[in-house]
Amino acid sequence: MQGLALAATDLACQRGGRHLFATLSLTLAPGGALWVTGANGAGKTSLLRILARLLRADAGRVRWEGNIGLLDDRLALDRGATLGAALGFWARVDGVALADRAAYAARVGLSGLEDVPVDYLSTGQRRRAGLARLLGQGADHWLLDEPLNGLDAAGVGLIEALIAERRAGGGAVIVASHQPITLLGAQVIAL
Amino acid sequence: MIRLGWALLRRDLAVMWAGTGAWLPVLFFLAVAVVFPFAVGPDPRLLARMGGGIVWVAALLASIMPIERLVAPDIEAGFFDQWAVRGVSPAFVLLARVKAHWLSFAPPLMLSAVVAGGMLGLDARALGLVELGLLAGTPGLAALGVLVAAVTAGLRGGAALAGLLLLPLAVPILVFGAGALVAGGESGLALCAAASLVLVAMTPMMGGAAVKP
């Protein structure tokens, strides 16, 4: 157990009477990465939600050392609010300083869009806003569900760079994606 | 914890104002008070006797108007997932939401009750009792709205079910609150406040258990 970012043992999950996986065990060291891949409906999202403790596994245990951040297709940004207000809410929840908020927005390429309503942003811009929220949370480890959806080539590069930085900072990163993503030295689970 | 509470309350109020607007329940409330005399006839004595009860029914209906927007959209948009990942309990979130829901409808309602009371011919004593009763009862109505919204979130046809679930639970507040208007019934205010407190105390725990992933 010592020195591991994540230890999950004997996970099992069935949805709607279908066995998605059973006796799935995995460990991640700090700085480690895991790519969960598989066809649509193979259980990538279910596994990620079990690892995020948002879904109860039918069997098994999940143990994290440190706190986790989650990015999936539900971005938790108020669509009627401006981008600045929507991100500002999470910044207040996470206790992010004002200067840092601007820095995170700049990092994900959303500078100058603070006054634009979330509804008016493109899909890719909304995904980038989700990344800004994730950066602001300052979590140790990241769980990313289909993070490449809706992103252009520059956005893919941005995600890969951010993941590399988080890993360099001692965080473990789990990516569930049916698209290939560059993760140096990552474990791969094909469901 | 306090910082988090303020952040939640501030967002909840902003979302509620930005939605259909907090004036809609108030307009609805006033519309009921305006229409009622047309329906039952303009007899001042009859209206004065019924006025308090009308105000109470209108208040109840106004409080359940935004019920399907109270919890379900936040579950769909992933807010509760993000709070869970951060270790924020749903009970804490729902407590803030009860406060925000109360702030968004009760004070405007109590102000417009003065106008409605005038249109229905309530005397000063009756109007005072209605206002005191609303002060005691609306926190319970706000809590009940959030509780039922949490329990029915994610159910198909949840809004229709919500009305059915909510009305019987609102009856004690209505009975004691409106009952206080009868001569010698002032002690109903205390019972109304008690029923209201029970609902406020129950809601975070029960609603939180319903929302938990």
Key phrases:
heterodimer; A: 191 residues; alpha/beta; Rossmann fold; five-stranded parallel sheet; three-stranded antiparallel sheet; 8 strands; B: 213 residues; mainly alpha
Percent range for helical residues of chain A? 25-40%
Global geometry of chain A? globular
Trace the largest sheet of chain A across and list its strands. Answer: 5-6-7-3-8
Subunit arrangement of the protein? heterodimer
Structure description:
The complex is a heterodimer of chains A (191) and B (213). Chain A has a domain of 113 residues: P-loop containing nucleotide triphosphate hydrolases (Rossmann fold), CATH 3.40.50. Chain A contains 5 helices and 8 strands; from the N terminus they run E-E-E-H-E-E-H-H-H-E-H-E-E. Chain A has a 5-stranded parallel beta sheet with strand order 5-6-7-3-8, with helices on both faces. In chain A, strands 2-1-4 form a 3-stranded antiparallel beta sheet, with helices on one face. The longest helix of chain A has 16 residues. Chain A is globular. The model of chain A has no long low-confidence stretch (mean pLDDT 92). Chain B is mainly alpha-helical. Chain B has one domain. Chain B is built from 9 helices and no strands. Chain B starts with a helix and ends with a helix.
